[in-house]
């Protein structure tokens, strides 16, 4: 594990920064662009600041021939070389075609290599482009940037290298004795223009520590700029390399930027609203949300009441408030009342909110949060049967009023479907149960940022088996993940533990089976998959991992066990997450909402007759919020 466990107190940001975190203007890099004495910098820095997955390596400059002591996962993934194969070696092996080549490939520009050598000898920064090769022999263009790191006594102790790899098409013929990729077409030869003067480094550059001629930025600012493109794990690794790097990686603005790159601006914005998050610091928050070392269950007793008593309601978080709508009362009475629980208050209590024009009562519907303080309600089962209407409510309006959104071509009326929101503005609805118990497998999107929102079915070539009671979670900005539910299998219906994902940023999105029992194309999951279930809860963590909990599970399995999956891994694997504290006793029929990005509030759970809404359980993912 890369996180430096000895540095806990240092990383905790005890000496709280008094300065307000700068208001983000999209890039959020103000701290790096500020010159002493104010004013902008006289060069275009935007290009350098684009966050993109980069290779990142560190070498030990005190050892002969600069051996690698760290490579990040992007480096491993792109080059095909695993860390254990390359640590201890000089990085020049990338200039040789494949692991068995003895010599630098003749197409590698010797002028660039000589310039690297010169920069290393003179202890200055290098930036330039040169040809490299993957382990399988295929060529890659590498925009390489190297920055020396000085120790306390002005000697260079480490060099960090950052690699932006791009594809290059060269007809090099097959790699002797290997199953290398098919050679590219001859016509593509040299399509990528390998610049002979691909060196940006400038001989006249100021060499001294503290000033870098090229940018007139200090080494520290430059290093921070490079570091800000890495992942939280990389930064943690870099910080454990040496004292100087550790000092560099303590920068709160750097951590905020790294968190924003890794988790997206929406998530970082939400995390900023967490009381105490500022005190905890971004570095600590990143660490706790990555390692989940501080995750714990705790019980929350809240005041007020949700009356009359009900089940099958729907709840969601709006900032630090939990909102509950509708549900099924006694004698299957569909309810249409709205309750709010403000978890920011000292003594949180359920409050019945008087809202004008309430939608018809219902259960088995979904409630989601969009555009900051707006709630969107879809579908469910009402007095007259199934519904497909959409209502929105601005919770912060002076006179909160439910407003119906009429839209053409809505999805079929349904209940027990699942919903999530994308980009904070789009409602996604999938599956559920239609008239006469027919299960659905469609996916619809409603863009609520439009003046007249229009439903759009997402056309896909293949759909997972139709289902109800599943969950839909968003990760990596525009990807959705479907888990579990009661799924159709021929004439039968089974609880499912299948995971499907779809990337909605693709031109033609399609469902992919990630892991599951018997799905076509499914990899056999390593690890411990959660027993099949429906009516469970799923929580998306910053960075993309999904936590699954509760639900209706067959047999004697414990549904209160927490399972975690990282869909961004090459081969996603379920793991059990053991956290201290007492989970909810009754583990199905829950509803959950994530408040402030770090608190999963679990409501309800069936005791048999009563639904307990005054005793909530909270799975806190970071230690900041108590
Ligand atoms: C931190 C660091 C990162 C480097 N990354 C690369 C790289 O990604 N690709 C590459 O071809 N060379 C890379 N190099 C350069 C080579 O390791 C080597 O220094 C260069 O080929 C010049 O030395 P040589 O003439 O002895 O091979 C890197 C060097 C350092 C210090």
From TrEMBL:
Residues 1-29 are annotated as: Disordered. Keywords: Biological rhythms, Chromophore, Flavoprotein, Flowering, FMN, Kelch repeat, Nucleus, Photoreceptor protein, Receptor, Repeat, Sensory transduction, Ubl conjugation pathway. GO terms for cellular component: cytosol; nucleus; SCF ubiquitin ligase complex. Pathway: Protein modification; protein ubiquitination. It is found in: Nucleus. CDD domains: F-box_AtADO-like, PAS. Pfam families: F-box-like (PF12937), Kelch_2 (PF07646), Kelch_KLHDC2_KLHL20_DRC7 (PF24681), PAS_9 (PF13426). Residues 1-26 have a biased composition (Acidic residues). Residues 61-123 form the PAS domain. It comes from the Eukaryota. Transmembrane segments: none annotated. PROSITE patterns: PAS (PS50112). One of its GO terms (biological process) is protein ubiquitination. InterPro entries: F-box-like_dom_sf (IPR036047), F-box_dom (IPR001810), Gal_Oxase/kelch_b-propeller (IPR011043), Kelch-typ_b-propeller (IPR015915), Kelch_2 (IPR011498), PAS (IPR000014), PAS-like_dom_sf (IPR035965). GO terms for molecular function: photoreceptor activity. Belongs to the ADAGIO family. This is Adagio protein 1-like. It comes from Sesamum indicum (Oriental sesame). The gene is LOC105155711.
């Amino acid at each position: 594990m890369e996180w430096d466990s000895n540095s806990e107190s240092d990383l905790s940001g005890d000496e709280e920064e008094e300065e307000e975190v700068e208001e983000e203007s999209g890039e959020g890099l103000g701290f790096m662009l500020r010159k002493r004495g104010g004013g902008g910098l006289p060069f275009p820095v935007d290009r350098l600041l684009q966050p993109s997955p980069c290779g990142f390596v560190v070498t030990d400059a005190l050892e002969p021939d600069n051996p690698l002591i760290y490579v990040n996962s992007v480096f491993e993934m792109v080059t095909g070389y695993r860390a254990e194969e390359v640590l201890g070696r000089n990085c020049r092996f990338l200039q040789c075609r494949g692991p068995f080549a003895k010599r630098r490939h003749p197409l590698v520009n010797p002028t660039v290599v000589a310039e690297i050598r010169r920069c290393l000898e003179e202890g200055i920064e290098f930036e330039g482009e040169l040809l490299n090769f993957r382990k399988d022999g295929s060529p890659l263009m590498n925009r390489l940037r190297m920055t020396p790191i000085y120790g306390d006594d002005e000697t260079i102790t480490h060099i960090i290298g950052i690699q932006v790899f791009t594809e290059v098409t060269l007809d090099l013929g097959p790699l002797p004795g290997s199953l290398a990729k098919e050679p590219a077409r001859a016509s593509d030869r040299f399509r990528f223009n390998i610049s002979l003067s691909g060196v940006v480094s400038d001989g006249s550059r100021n060499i001294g520590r503290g000033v870098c001629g090229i940018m007139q930025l200090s080494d520290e600012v430059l290093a921070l700029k490079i570091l800000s493109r890495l992942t939280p794990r990389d930064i943690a690794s870099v910080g454990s390399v040496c004292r100087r790097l550790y000092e560099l990686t303590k920068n709160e603005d750097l951590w905020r930027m790294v968190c924003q790159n890794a988790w997206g601006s929406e998530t970082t914005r939400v995390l900023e609203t967490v009381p105490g998050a500022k005190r905890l610091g971004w570095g600590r928050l990143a660490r706790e949300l990555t390692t989940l070392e501080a995750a714990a269950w705790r019980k929350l007793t809240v005041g007020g009441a949700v009356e009359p008593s009900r089940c099958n309601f729907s709840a969601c978080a709006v900032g630090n408030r939990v909102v509950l709508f509708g549900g099924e009362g006694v004698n299957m009475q569909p309810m249409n009342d709205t309750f709010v629980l403000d978890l920011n208050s000292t003594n949180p209590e359920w409050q019945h909110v008087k809202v004008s024009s309430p939608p018809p009562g219902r259960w088995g519907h979904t409630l989601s949060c969009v555009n900051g303080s707006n709630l969107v309600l879809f579908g469910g089962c009402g007095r007259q049967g199934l519904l497909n209407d959409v209502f929105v409510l601005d919770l912060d309006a002076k006179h909160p009023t439910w407003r119906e959104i009429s839209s053409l071509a809505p999805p079929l009326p349904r209940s027990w479907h699942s919903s999530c929101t994308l980009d904070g503005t789009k409602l996604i609805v999938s599956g559920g149960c239609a008239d006469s118990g027919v299960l659905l497998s469609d996916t619809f999107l409603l863009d609520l940022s439009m003046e007249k929102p229009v439903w759009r079915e997402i056309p896909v070539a293949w759909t997972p088996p139709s289902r109800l009671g599943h969950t839909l979670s968003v990760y990596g900005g525009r990807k959705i993940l479907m888990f579990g539910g009661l799924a159709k299998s021929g004439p039968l219906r089974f609880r499912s533990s299948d995971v499907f994902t779809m990337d909605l940023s693709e031109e033609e999105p399609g469902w992919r089976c990630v892991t599951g029992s018997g799905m076509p194309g499914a990899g056999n999951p390593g690890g411990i998959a959660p027993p099949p279930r429906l009516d469970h809860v799923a929580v998306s963590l910053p960075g993309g991992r999904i936590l699954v909990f509760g639900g209706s599970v067959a047999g004697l399995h414990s549904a209160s066990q927490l399972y975690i999956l990282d869909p961004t891994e090459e081969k996603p694997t379920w793991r059990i997450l053991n956290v201290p504290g007492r989970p909810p006793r009754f583990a199905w029929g829950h509803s959950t909402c994530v408040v402030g990005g770090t608190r999963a509030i679990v409501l309800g759970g069936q005791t048999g007759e009563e639904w307990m809404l005054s005793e909530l359980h909270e799975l806190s993912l970071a230690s900041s919020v108590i």
